[in-house]
């Protein structure tokens, strides 16, 4: 790597940070008084906040513009991203095949359809035409069972708020139907209408910050206004629960899935064939994870952690579906079930073992018939339907861009249908290995490490360590074209599978929640120490990154061990653990975090690691920090990052810069247009290299 060490001139002493609005506000948690001086920044539409945001963005923009190689990095990211990408095929209810494709630098991928595989597709829906700047994202589609109508959902500016539109499938003509203020929903069709979930219209000006309460299920009939939609289900006694509708393929049964309180889901089912039929309770609590898979020959198929922390598949008589009557169909294995789909005769079950995917064919009686041999160690996304014989899957790894395959059940063979051509990059030059490191309490934790072959273990390689560790979410191998910029410049990319995730089942998840949350941070610190001890890198060349719950992770470990890292990138992070549950859907995270209102013990525990409340101000040197957030993030409201940035900038944490990057017309991350992603990653990589004193190569 021909990289030169430079004098970066990046001392925070040369940065004059804007003065944040403050107030003399304190909160009392049981017998502990906690100051919250930057409470005014929670009002994201107030003039003082908007002025502060504008000043912060100017400082950050000026800083980035002064990095001499920032434009070169942006240009290289554009080159790396400019290749055709395609998602899996699927066959919808009109009998045609659909797929998403992006020719390279399109802000949003376009939805195509075709009569047969191999025949060029026609544009079915182009979300790039829904806005001038690519900030309207297509988030899902759903066809009526007769294929006549197609409902599609969109998000504007990255918000979680969902709008639903309806098209005539054959002609592509847009109908008058339009649903607003829906959230965490798609369209579940029955007849000439569909079920969806929505909240009451929010207060004007508080659409992206106020807590969401009373999630309701409605039925919308095509050709009628939203005001005429029929309320199907609500639970005003539990205003903080989510409610999702699920209709079986034959349209005979409606289910309501409840969540938001415990680790799992409640479930009810109603026979739609019988007018006035009562709801039957499948599971009343939210204490176990439970997903309906469908109804076949009078049997309800369920995926659950009840009696099986790595999941099992059970069946129950639809007329007597309670937990006591469940029968095991596929028992728990030594790997975690991550997905179940059906063919006309069989099931396809995707397992996760050591954070990589494996797929098997089972018959409907639960007997394993064979394995879908995946192309390597990585991540697969499988599509199949009990209506058609087609089976498609995508496969990706850290060194394999996502490719599309067809699988033939009769022969057991896979056929490569489509693979991308990455501009001039030889993927064989890079390798990934999986290692295990020991955390503070002796737990063995896995981590993937990817780098250019021939890497010299001299402790001087720029290394980016990524983690999440929460909400039962697994981190599995996946390709990123933008990450190639890091790797081609001699960078090491490490991804740690921390406790709190779903890699090893429910006990692994729970070991990183509530009063055990420190396990997650200790795991991440141990991952950093492993990379240092094994000479991949050293504290002067180690950066850490994480988003959302991973932003909390980065903020917490930076406070705990600022000596370990040169650069920290907390993105859209949960930074105020004392008040997170008071905004939008923050209350939904209580099953993982607990809340400051739960108990004195819980409040003290949260306060002990809350990033905003544990920033040192005694001159302890902190790494260079670039915080990222967005003005339309209504998942983790930007107030978290605002208050964290203001506290950091006012504290005595050494000379390294403490900057915040606040994206406009963007949200938590999903659906972000390519142009904004390139700009953001150009800033992140430039910031990391610059503060490590490294000039990346030109390519």
Task: Describe the protein's topology.
Layout (H helix, E strand, L loop, with lengths): L3 E2 L20 E4 L2 E4 L11 H19 L4 H12 L3 E2 L3 E2 L5 E6 L7 E5 L7 E4 L10 E8 L5 E8 L4 E8 L5 E10 L4 E3 L2 E6 L17 E6 L8 E4 L8 E6 L5 E7 L6 E6 L8 E4 L6 E7 L2 E6 L7 E6 L9 E4 L5 E7 L3 E8 L2 E8 L4 E5 L6 E6 L6 E7 L2 E9 L4 E6 L11 E9 L5 E9 L10 E4 L16 H6 L3 E5 L9 H5 L7 H16 L8 E6 L1 H12 L6 E5 L18 H4 L6 H10 L14 E7 L8 H12 L7 E6 L10 H19 L1 E2 L4
Parallel strand pairs: 35-36, 35-37, 37-38, 38-39, 39-40
Antiparallel strand pairs: 1-41, 2-3, 4-6, 5-6, 6-7, 7-8, 9-10, 10-11, 11-12, 13-14, 14-15, 15-16, 17-18, 18-19, 19-20, 21-22, 22-23, 23-24, 25-26, 26-27, 27-28, 29-30, 30-31, 31-32, 33-34, 34-36
Helix pairs in contact: 2-10, 5-6
What would your notes on this structure say?
- The protein is α+β, with helices and mostly antiparallel strands and 699 residues long.
- It folds into 2 domains: 9-79 and 433-695, Rossmann fold, CATH 3.40.50; 85-247, Prolyl oligopeptidase, N-terminal domain (Methylamine Dehydrogenase, Chain H).
- The chain contains 10 helices and 41 strands.
- The chain has an 8-stranded mixed beta sheet, with helices on both faces.
- The longest helix has 19 residues, at 47-65.
- Mean pLDDT is 93; it is low at 1-13.
């Amino acid at each position: 790597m021909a990289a030169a060490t430079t004098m970066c001139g990046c001392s925070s002493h040369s940065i004059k940070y804007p003065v944040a609005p403050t107030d003399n506000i304190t909160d009392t948690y049981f017998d502990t008084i906690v100051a919250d001086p930057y409470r005014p920044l929670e009002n994201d539409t107030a003039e003082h906040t908007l002025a502060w945001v504008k000043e912060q963005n100017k400082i950050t923009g000026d800083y980035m513009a002064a990095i001499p190689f920032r434009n070169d990095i942006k240009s290289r990211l554009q080159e790396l991203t400019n290749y055709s990408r395609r998602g899996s095929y699927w066959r919808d209810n009109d009998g045609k095949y659909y797929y998403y494709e992006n020719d390279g630098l399109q802000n949003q991928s376009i939805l195509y359809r075709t009569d047969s595989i191999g025949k060029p597709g026609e544009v079915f829906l182009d979300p790039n035409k829904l806005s001038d700047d690519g900030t309207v994202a297509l988030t899902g589609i759903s066809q009526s069972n007769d294929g006549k109508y197609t409902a599609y959902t969109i998000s504007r500016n990255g918000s979680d708020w969902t709008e639903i539109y309806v098209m005539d499938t054959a002609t592509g003509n847009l109908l008058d139907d339009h649903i607003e203020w829906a959230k965490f929903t798609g369209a579940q069709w029955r007849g000439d209408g569909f079920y969806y979930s929505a909240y009451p219209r929010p207060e004007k000006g508080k659409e992206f910050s106020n807590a969401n309460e009373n999630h309701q299920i409605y039925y919308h009939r095509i050709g009628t206004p939203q005001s005429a939609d029929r309320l199907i289900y609500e639970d005003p006694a539990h205003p903080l629960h989510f409610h999702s509708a699920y209709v079986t393929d034959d349209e005979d049964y409606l289910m309501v899935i409840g969540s938001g309180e415990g680790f799992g889901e409640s479930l009810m089912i109603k026979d739609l064939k019988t007018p006035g039929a009562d709801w039957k309770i499948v599971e009343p609590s939210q204490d176990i994870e439970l997903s309906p898979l469908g109804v076949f020959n009078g049997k309800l198929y369920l995926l659950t952690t009840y009696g099986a922390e790595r999941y099992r598949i059970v069946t129950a008589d639809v007329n007597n579906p309670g937990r006591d009557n469940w029968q095991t169909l596929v028992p728990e294995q030594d790997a975690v079930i991550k997905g179940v789909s059906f063919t006309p005769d069989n099931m396809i079950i995707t397992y996760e073992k050591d954070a990589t995917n494996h797929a098997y064919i089972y018959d409907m009686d639960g007997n394993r018939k064979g394995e879908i041999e995946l192309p390597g160690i990585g991540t697969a996304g499988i599509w199949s339907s009990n209506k058609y014989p087609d089976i498609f899957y995508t496969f990706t790894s850290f060194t394999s861009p996502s490719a599309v395959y067809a699988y033939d059940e009769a022969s057991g063979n896979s056929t490569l249908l489509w693979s991308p051509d990455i501009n001039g990059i030889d993927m064989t030059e890079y390798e990934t290995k999986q290692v295990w490191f020991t955390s503070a309490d002796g737990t063995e934790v896995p981590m993937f490490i990817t780098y250019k072959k021939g890497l010299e273990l001299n402790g001087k390689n720029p290394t980016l360590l990524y983690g999440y560790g929460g909400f039962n979410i697994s981190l599995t191998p996946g390709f990123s074209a933008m990450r190639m910029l890091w790797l081609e410049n001699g960078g090491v990319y490490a991804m740690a599978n921390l406790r709190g995730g779903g890699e090893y089942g429910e006990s692994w998840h729970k070991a990183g929640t509530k009063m055990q949350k420190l396990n997650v941070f200790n795991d991440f610190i141990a991952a950093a120490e492993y990379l240092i001890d094994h000479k991949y890198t050293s504290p002067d060349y180690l950066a850490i990154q994480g988003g959302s719950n991973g932003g909390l992770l980065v903020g917490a470990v930076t406070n705990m061990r600022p000596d370990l890292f040169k650069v920290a990138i907390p993105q859209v992070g949960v930074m105020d653990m004392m008040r997170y549950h008071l905004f939008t859907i923050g209350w939904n995270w209580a099953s993982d975090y607990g809340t400051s209102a739960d108990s004195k013990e819980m409040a003290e525990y949260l306060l002990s690691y809350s990033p905003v409340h544990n920033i040192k101000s005694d001159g302890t040197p902190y790494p260079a920090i670039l915080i990222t957030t967005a003005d339309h993030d209504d998942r983790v409201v930007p107030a978290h990052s605002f208050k964290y940035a203001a506290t950091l900038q006012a504290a005595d944490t050494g000379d390294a810069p403490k900057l915040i990057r606040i994206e406009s017309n963007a949200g938590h991350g999903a659906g972000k247009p390519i142009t904004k992603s390139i700009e953001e990653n150009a800033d992140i990589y430039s910031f990391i290299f610059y503060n490590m004193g490294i000039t990346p190569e030109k390519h």
